[in-house]
Every structure is written in structure tokens, then in C-alpha cells.
Design brief:
Layout lengths: L11 H4 L5 H17 L4 H20 L10 H13 L4 H20 L26 H8 L1 H4 L27 H23 L3 H5 L6 E2 L4 E5 L5 E5 L2 H18 L19 H15 L6 H14 L4 H8 L4 H22 L4
Antiparallel strand pairs: 1-2, 2-3
Subunit structure: Forms a cyclic heterotetrameric complex composed of two molecules of XerC and two molecules of XerD.
Subcellular location: Cytoplasm
Protein name: Tyrosine recombinase XerC
Amino acid sequence: MGGTEDRSTRGTRVVHAALPEPLRDAVDEFARHLASVRNHSAHTVRAYVADLVSLLDHAHRMGCAEVAELSLDTVRSWLAKQRTMGAARASLARRAAAARTFSAWAHRGGLLPTDVAATLASPRPQRTLPTVLRTDQAALLVEAPTRHSHVRPAPDDHPATDGHLTAATVDGAGAEDVVAEAVRLRDRVLLELLYGTGVRVSEACGIDVADVDHGRRVVRVRGKGGRERVVPYGSPAQRALDEWLRRGRPVLVVPGSRDALLLGVRGGRLNPTTARQIVGAYAQATGLPRIGPHALRHSAATHLLEGGADLRAVQELLGHSSLASTQVYTHVSVDRLRAAYRQAHPRA
């Protein structure tokens, strides 16, 4: 197996250097499979590889020198050890999923005589209800860049190449004022898109200018696993987009910006980490709990359902592969209904 190291396995040799070579090779090949065939994100690949290294290290300590010697009992004892060490139910469920994925892959590739983890049960993770803003709170947050001009932009850790501000002295204004106004327009677009479309923060940052269809008011986004979908947005987002593209983006754009819709202060594509800091800063300035972009996604989904949207339509809008992921929002809506009932009904 072996082969040259690529993007999907870079750095894994360090974390699994203590394993026998056959097990190390299996880890590297599995990482390549996740990245190249399953098209998982780098974050998902790292998480699965870390779980697999932990499993194979446990198996090696139990005398396993090759993948073919892995057994269901070994996998179960590994999970039991994780539980005694205090792993949360959600973490155990993810590690069991990683073990099942590896076992199925190894069996298909002839490394395992049988799919030993096919029948492996895993604890159902406790579902915590997502943070959901009220509609008035969501409106306050989305409009915050207009009201709170004192909020400073987060540091930009991904500058574009050949960076310079081409419009820093427009109409005689100071460069700092021009950039601050451009950033404010950028922030408004970011917040409008996160709440108006329900997209993930990584999806919002990945949007290119050509992905926006202004005539139909829809935007193409690339979600998990490279899956594309088209989501609609409303007239407030359209106005924010028009202002950003007319007066904001030209200020920050540099040759290295390429086609990115949302730009950082140094012209590179806006980074999700920076976007999270932006949402948190405006939430704090508005007097809301310090929340992240996912709270706007949760709020959009909940408000759609409360407004009468079909669950399947919300599933498609959010890009959930399973309806079960979307159904959590029905529980949120019911909880809000119960709270309103207890507060308002005389016989509650």
C-alpha cells in the first residue's frame, strides 16, 4: 500500500508513527479514500484518522499487528475504554461511526476477511436543542452593521497575493474610512446571507460572485461532500448585495481576490473563522448572547417551520442529507409553542 504522501494524509505519519507499518499504511490509504473518493472535508478526514489511530493503537496493544487481526471484541473494548475515560456520548457515537466506516472499507479492499464492525451498536448522542433567536432578535443582529459602526473588523488571517487597496482614496476620503465602510457593507451581506438563506458559514465564505443569480434571487452554494444546491434569498439580502458589489467589494478587491464574493480587509476570501468573530462581535454589540453563525442557521430553519414551510423544503434549503437532521427544528418549534402557551393561556 504505502505510496506518496498527499494532501489527505499530510501529517498523519507523525500521529501514528508508533504503529506497525501495515497499520500505518492502512491509516494512510483510508485517509486518501476519505478525501479523494468520499470527498470529505479536511476537518472530517482529520477526525476520522484520529479515531482510527486511537483504535489501531488499542488493537496493537492487544497484540494486533495487521488489519486482518482486528475483531469486533477489540473494537468494543476500545469503545468501552473511551467511555471509562469520560468520553461523551456524542464522541462515542462518532468514534463508532469511524470504526464502522473503516471496517467496511477494509473489508471491501481485502484487508479484513469480514466486516467486523458491521453490527457494532453505538450510543445515541444526546440531542441538545440549538440556540434560536426570536425574529426581532434576528432582525436586530442582521441590521447591526448599520447601527453599530464602531464594531471593528476581525483580523484577517488570509490575505490575497499582490494585495493593495485600489480605491483607498475615493472622493478624497481617508483610506481608513473607506475601508471601514466597505467592511460594514461586507458584514451586512454576510449576516443577511447567513440568516436569509440558512447556509453554513463555510458555504457563505465559499460563494463566488458568479454564484449569485440576481434575477431569480438565488445563490449556488457548495455544501458537505462537495454537494451543490441552490437556495433563495430575500429582498433585504438583495439590497445588501447590490450595495456591497457597487460600493464595498471594489474597495477591498485585489488581483488575488479572484472570484470570491466576500472579502477580508486584505483582499483574500473571507475566512470562516473571521466570519464567526464578526457574528459574535455584532451579537455582543446588540446585547444578544454571544452566538455564532450556526445560531442564524438554526433561527432561519425554525422561523421557516413556524411560518408554515414544509419540512422537506427546509431539509433541501439547509442541505441536510437526512430528514432526521432537520426534524430537530420541529422540537424547537414545539418548545417555543409550549413556552408561549404557559405564558399566555389562563389554564396553562
